[in-house]
Amino acid sequence: MAVYNAEAYLREAIESILNQTFTNFDFLIINDGSTDASKSIISTYKDPRIRLLDNPQNLGLTATLNCGLSNITTPLVARQDADDISHPQRLEKQVTFLKNHPQIALVGSQGYNIQANGDKKEFMHRALEDFSIRWEFLFYNSFIHTAVTFRTDVIHKQLGGYDQNISYCQDYELWSRIMRHHQVANLPEPLISRRVHEASMTHTMQEIRLSESLRAGKYHLQTLFGTDTLNDAYEALLIFLQTQNNEPFAQHYQTFHQLLEQYTHTSSSRDFHRTVLRQYIRMISQLQNKNRLHGLKMVIKTLQQMPKSLFSLPWHRIIAKTVLH
Which stretches within 192-249 are classed as H helix? Predict the structure, then answer.
């Protein structure tokens, strides 16, 4: 857990880890030069599992996470941010899963976005299976950073940790490198609550975040297809998905289907269908009201191309969301 001026939510975050049903862990907390009461709050806890490192000055999240990796001796690492909450069985479920699936290097979970006061805001769906995650990852981060547990040897020794040239999407970039060599997974249960508030990085430095996410996406595109032939069209599609704009939709739809046709021939799992359909919904939701007819046409075409998907999701709700969003 990296901590920087997190006094408002820090106790709740710390106690969510101390109260885990899985108890055999070291809790490494790195205070990244906080100027508020964060260090004093951490120091009030006398639990012997807590180990506090104190950066002499603020180094930023990426450097602080790498500092943490350099001070870890356990075979597994679980990440959590200082304003989020891990549900009581999170560590137990993820540790058990990794022990039972030695081929998996990284596991995440579903989760909730919560408001500053702790009220639930929305459920965060993520793909579950390696094949589905690799598809989903083309368009957005399939892992909630505060929800992951990974193998130390893979992340630290093989890959060298987080790229310190990345300021905001350091997790997205690192996961893209993991998937070039290792399998990954998400658990179906919501095991964390991620707090969304005005001070969180979700609402800051959007241009840098977009640039960094494009870099990770292009790297992953090359991993999947080994070619740069769709590079420019893929970049345009990502920009369309991650920004509010009123560009012509047809070109992005065509790019999406080109990628899908190259990728789908080997899988018909329920999780993969759900993952693809969530991406359709996400694309539709980006359309301005006057272009919603294109979204409805896309739903119809989806059903024609993927008839099994008729039974995968409640289509009446998807269509309602398309029209009423």
Answer: 206-225, 231-242
Q: Name the residue ranges covered by the structural domains of the chain.
A: 2-206, 227-324
214 burial class (0-12, 13-18, 19+ CB within 10 angstroms)? Answer: middle
Nearest by Cα to 108 from 211, 179, 160: 179
Cα-based torsion angle of the residue sequence 202, 204, 208, 213 in order, rounded to the nearest 10 degrees: 10
The C-alpha atoms of residue 184 and residue 133 are separated, in whole angstroms, by 8
2-206 to CATH, choices 3.90.550.10, 3.30.470.20, 3.40.50.300, 3.90.110.10: 3.90.550.10
User: Tell me: the pLDDT tens digits for 125-179?
Assistant: 999 999 999 999 999 999 999 999 999 999 999 999 999 999 999 999 999 999 9
Helix (H, G, I), strand (E, B) or coil at 21: coil
Say if residues 6 and 39 touch (Cβ distance below 8 Å).
Answer: no
Q: Which amino acid is at 164?
A: Q
Token representation of residue 171: 């997790």
This prediction's pTM: 0.88
Look at residues 91, 113, 65, 84 and name the one whose alpha carbon lies nearest to residue 11: 84
Please count the residues of the chain: 325
d(CA 173, CA 214): 10
Crossing angle (nearest 10°) for helices 315-324 and 270-285: 10
Find, among 285, 311, 309, the residue nearest to 296 by Cα: 285
Measured CA to CA, the distance from residue 180 to residue 90 in angstroms comes to: 26
Give the pLDDT band of residue 42 (cuts 50, 70, 90).
very high
